[in-house]
Amino acid sequence: MKTKVALTGNEAVAQAMKQINPDVVAAYPITPQTEIVQIFSSFVANGEVDTEFVAVESEHSAMSAAIGAAAGGARAMTATSSQGLALMFEVVYIAASLRLPIVFPVVNRALSGPINIHCDHSDAMGLRDSGVIQLFSENAQEAYDNMIQAVRIAEHPDVRLPVMVNMDGFITSHAMDVLEVLDDETVKNFVGTYVPEDYLLDAQNPISMGNFDMYDFYFEHKRQQVEAMKAAKEVIKEVGKEFAKISGREYGLIESYKLEDADVAVVVLNSAAGTAKGVADELRAKGIKAGVLKPRVYRPFPQEEIREALKGVKAVAVMDRAETFSTCGGPMFADIRNTLYDLKNDIKVVNYIYGLGGRDLRLEHVQQVFEDLENIRKTGRVDETVKYLGLRE
Amino acid sequence: MTPYNPFNRNFGSGTRTKAVRPDMKWHELTRAGNIYEPGNANTYETGDWRSIRPVWNKERCIHCLFCWRYCPDASVIAKDGKFETFDYKHCKGCGICAKVCPVNAIDMVSEDEIEKVKEANKDEN
């Protein structure tokens, strides 16, 4: 049974966590994530969940506690943003390499300094090489849906990796949105019971986790992680199909919006995709063949799907809400260019850095991007590969 | 839960074997480097790292077992409540046993010296 409700992104994620009913949640507050855990704590206090809630002293401890719980055989979760994610950096790599299915929402917020509490993707991008699966959510509905699917993806025997569910800080986390939630029983049945293959609290089968590797075996263990990421691509699609049966909403690796016959396209993550789709619709009404590609999964990177979706497009703009300081553009720009290189066609790919520190992305900005793309398409000339939107320059 | 193809279950995730061999490929090794056989640290002979070794003086020893208690590498072997021997395959030569011995029944001797004596004995035989 589905119910239409009005919730903020944080409330929707807390609701998903309530229905998932994890064994352990260990967390530390940070704006704009705090509400998720705050709301969840009230569920714990009111006895609405069976979760053991551990109020730890830092995010590093939060992920460490989640790892301990997961290694012990429990379904464990945490939540964070920005500096909190940065603080748990080393332990996130541990969670991934120990192959523990920890699901954790990250409310995307800019990394300091200067100190900024508003939305950008620098926090998630900092961990793109950590070996955790990264899902991105355009709105509260997607955040809710992603959380539920994340549990099945993470715990799948061929995957067994942590899953980071991203959503935009304040824009999605604090804005009231309309979404459809499922009933408790349906979610409970969908996520099922966590059946770990290896766990430390198995007295009959003692094992050691988190061991020491020398140069003769470390490489192979990393290769195993790559294989798990490859398997994740298929598992995510399968779980998406199964989720469609209970929700009516199907999820894949990407969302391809009006790209079938598009001449120009924008590639964008999270909430800005909504803005881009709105502008694409306006342009379509004027006869411009505009489309939007929204990767829902950023890690593993859905290279084949993206190549397929963009192969007919003449000019592509990748919009990055994070900087790499490589002086060669943003993180997703590099991934997209890498993906399209082998097409060996004349596709032009440019980059726009936008929205850092919560700088507003306005319709005019996206309109400008599409205008630039149309110029590139017509003249075949790119004057500047990397540009900035809404920057004082 | 739907069964997943085309990968076989556990392929690429690693195995749960109790014996890892150097000729094993990445997918045959244990997942995440997990270890399924307890006590395997014993097979790694850290005694090779030593540059000085403890030598027991039988006459002075009072079998208090302080050395056994303090050894950080479990390399003092005791039997029936008495000192038996040092485990030279694992002793790293830290010298803690010699330091805590209340009767100075342990001398820390350079491995070079031990080598020289061994060589001398070999020449003689």
TrEMBL record, chain A:
UniProt keyword terms in alphabetical order: Oxidoreductase, Pyruvate
Entry EC no(s): 1.2.7.1
Stretches assigned to the Pyruvate:ferredoxin oxidoreductase core domain: 262-366
SUPFAM superfamilies assigned to the protein according to its UniProt record, in alphabetical order: Thiamin diphosphate-binding fold (THDP-binding), TK C-terminal domain-like
Alphabetical GO biological process terms: response to oxidative stress
Residue ranges of domain Pyruvate flavodoxin/ferredoxin oxidoreductase pyrimidine binding in the record: 16-240
Domain of life: Bacteria
A molecular function (GO) term: pyruvate synthase activity
Membership in a protein family: Belongs to the pyruvate:ferredoxin/flavodoxin oxidoreductase family.
PANTHER family attached to this UniProt entry: PYRUVATE-FLAVODOXIN OXIDOREDUCTASE-RELATED
Protein name listed in UniProt: Pyruvate synthase subunit PorA
Source species: Fervidicola ferrireducens
Gene: porA
UniProtKB/TrEMBL annotation, chain B:
PANTHER family assigned to the protein according to its UniProt record, in alphabetical order: PYRUVATE SYNTHASE SUBUNIT PORD
Name by which UniProt lists this protein: Pyruvate synthase subunit PorD
UniProt keyword terms in alphabetical order: 4Fe-4S, Iron, Iron-sulfur, Metal-binding, Pyruvate, Repeat
GO MF annotation: an example: oxidoreductase activity, acting on the aldehyde or oxo group of donors, iron-sulfur protein as acceptor
Residues that span the membrane, as ranges: none
Taxonomic superkingdom: Bacteria
Cofactor: [4Fe-4S] cluster
InterPro entries attached to this UniProt entry: 4Fe4S_Fe-S-bd, 4Fe4S_Fe_S_CS, PorD_KorD
Species whose genome carries this gene: Fervidicola ferrireducens
Pfam families cross-referenced by the UniProt entry: Fer4_21
Limits of the 4Fe-4S ferredoxin-type domain: 52-81, 82-111
Gene3D superfamilies reported for this sequence: 3.30.70.20
